[in-house]
Amino acid sequence: MKTKNRPLYLIVTDPAITLDYLNRNVRVISNTRITWELRRSVKMIIQCHNCQLWGHATSNCGRASRCLKCAGDHHTRACLKTRETPANCANCGGDHPANYSKCPNYVERIERLELKKAKSEPKKYSQAPPPKVNAWKERETNRPSREHFPALPNRGQNQNSAPPQPSQPRTSAPRAGDGFNELNAELDELNRLVNLSELARAVRDLNNLLRACPTNKDLFTAYQDFYDNINSYKFRN
User: Fold this and answer.
1) Residue 1 pLDDT grade (very low, low, confident, very high; cuts 50, 70, 90)
2) What are phi and psi of 47, to 5 degrees?
3) N or C: which end of the chain has fewer CB within 10 A?
4) How far is CA 101 from CA 2, 65, 84, 138, 177, in A?
5) Taking 80 as the threshold, does the pLDDT of residue 153 lie above it?
6) Is the pTM of this model over 0.90?
7) What residue numbers bound the domain in which 223 lies?
8) What is the domain count for the chain?
């Protein structure tokens, strides 16, 4: 019995029953050790077991029933076809069951599906081949040798060369703001040395004296009087 091949059975379980549960709790049936595996369908498109068409499940089908074997208007389990009777496909009318993977109808749907998938996938760009020539090695090869450049003069051997000229200090052009700053500095110094208010009063008194002089002699006399009274002003701070 150990060396005899056993057929595979398809078991449909409740969604709550997992593969791990079956392998741990149901390992022997009728004195026969068994193993559990998930059913893997080789078909890329789901097929309805009611109408035998592709693209939808049986639970979502509202069409009339078609037989998988003979394409008759009945469920597959009610079919009376014998093995000697040729099969009839409900999709293409060929002499094969409706679930045949080489069915022209199924192959055509697969081709359309693959074409649609190829259009939706992003384009894959192939990597550029490596360069045949190493750019760094080519650069070293094409680099000019020393004989292409003239020799630089040696300062120690050249006695006739003129002595280097001393560097001249750079002078910057005067800016407009420098003049105002210098004027303000001089005015501040003048205000520190001289009482400008007293000086303005003296000038005002001199002008009043000069306005009252009709002749040159009177002007000279006014200057003389102003000079004699100059000490009455406090010009120094």
Assistant:
1) very low
2) -120, 135
3) N
4) 33, 21, 21, 59, 96
5) no
6) no
7) 183-232
8) 1
Q: Which DSSP string corresponds to 148-178?
A: GSPPPPPTTT--SSPPPPPPPPP-PPPPHHH
Is 32 contained in some domain?
Answer: no
* Residues 222 and 208 sit within 8 Å (Cβ to Cβ): no
Amino acid (1-letter code) at residue 86: P
Q: Is residue 222 part of a domain?
A: yes
- Does the residue 209 lie in any domain? yes
Residue written as token pair 């074409």: 115
In the block, tokens 């120094």 appear at: 236
Name the β-bridge partners of 29: 32
The sign of the torsion formed by the CA atoms of 196, 199, 205, 208 equals: negative
Report the Cα 1 to chain-centroid distance in Å.
Answer: 66
Tokens of 45: 């498109």
**pLDDT tens-digit readout, 160-217:** 556 666 666 665 555 656 777 888 888 788 778 888 888 888 888 888 888 888 888 8
Write out the two tokens for 123. Answer: 């384009």
**Separation of alpha carbons 229 and 138, rounded Å:** 99
Residue 3 has pLDDT above 60, yes or no: no
The answer to whether residue 160 sits within a structural domain is: no
216-228 and 196-211 helices, crossing angle to 10°: 150
Query: What are the start-end ranges of the E strands in the chain?
Result: 28-29, 32-33
